[in-house]
Design goal:
Blueprint lengths: L3 H8 L5 E5 L4 H12 L3 E6 L2 H13 L3 E6 L5 H15 L4 E4 L14 H31 L10 E6 L2 H4 L6 H21 L4 E8 L13 H9 L13 H8 L11 E4 L9
Parallel strand pairs: 1-2, 1-4, 2-3, 4-5, 5-6, 6-7
């Protein structure tokens, strides 16, 4: 068995601070819990304090540390206030997850401008703003010589989607916005690599969550499982390993611009 100290040197996040935007949701909440379990101080960001409290209790139960900050992910001023609050309370920011998202299964000709703009705001603008606000901090910290330990860089993980890799039926605006998130992430990975700031995308396959329950009709479930070699949906905890890899300065030090697919083989299935 590998020595625990060796594994901790690769995946341990002690002393790190992680901001998880969308951390009150099911998927990002599990990712936040995993970060806390690896030693990071986690800041859950969202609008629902009750959901945050439930997740914080789980984090505390595994000996982790975290707190909640209410913020609207589509507001630059609120994200800037979040950044300042984290720096004031925790002293640093090392890992940022941009995971706010909404979905819709409206037939294409029935999509209203209001619905289209709402999904673009949450799925794309929030990532754009999160990368601007927190990416600027990370890049400037690197340009200034690094953090107090002399280390440079940091990690931004954006939540993508299989619908950005293979367009999925009935989720037109969602697919378009997630495709843009993938493209933006790769662009930023290229720009910020010289500063040691890594930007990657975690690409979940089918994980039942609040935002997609309405589109998971029995017919659609049968179609999804028939196209997934693992023959099941993913569980939120199964995103933790990918999260720790991309968040770690050690294990993930040379990984940037990656679209890491976690889908039970969905993307590998043809006929």
């Amino acid at each position: 068995m590998p020595h625990p100290d060796y594994l901790n040197s690769l995946f341990g996040l002690s002393g790190k601070v992680a901001v998880v935007i969308g951390g009150t949701g099911e998927l990002c909440g599990a990712m936040a819990e995993g970060l806390a379990g690896a030693g990071a101080e986690v800041v859950l960001v969202g609008r629902n304090a009750d959901k945050a409290q439930a997740r914080l209790e789980k984090i505390a139960a595994i000996g982790g540390k975290g707190w909640f900050h209410a913020a609207e992910a589509t507001s630059r001023s609120q994200l800037e206030a979040l950044r300042d609050a984290v720096l004031a309370r925790s002293g640093r920011i090392d890992i940022v997850i941009n995971g706010a998202g909404v979905n819709s299964a409206t037939p294409f000709f029935e999509i209203t401008e209001e619905e289209f703009e709402r999904i673009v705001q949450v799925n794309l603008k929030s990532v754009f703003l999160g990368c601007q606000v927190f990416g600027k901090y990370l890049v400037e910290r690197a340009a200034g010589g690094g953090d107090k330990s002399g280390r440079l860089g940091g990690a931004i993980i954006n939540l993508g989607s299989m619908s950005a890799v293979v367009p999925l039926s009935r989720v037109f605006t969602y697919s378009a916005t997630k495709s843009a998130v993938h493209n933006l992430s790769l662009n930023l990975a290229r720009e910020w690599a010289p500063h040691g700031v890594r930007v990657n995308v975690i690409v979940p396959g089918f994980f039942p969550a609040e935002q997609n329950r309405k589109v998971l009709t029995p017919e659609r479930v049968a179609s999804i499982l028939g196209h997934t070699p693992a023959k099941r949906f993913g569980e939120p905890r199964e995103l933790i390993g990918a999260t720790l890899l991309l968040a770690s300065d050690a294990a993930g030090s040379f990984i940037t611009g990656e679209e890491l697919i976690v889908d039970g083989g969905y993307h590998a299935m043809t006929i």
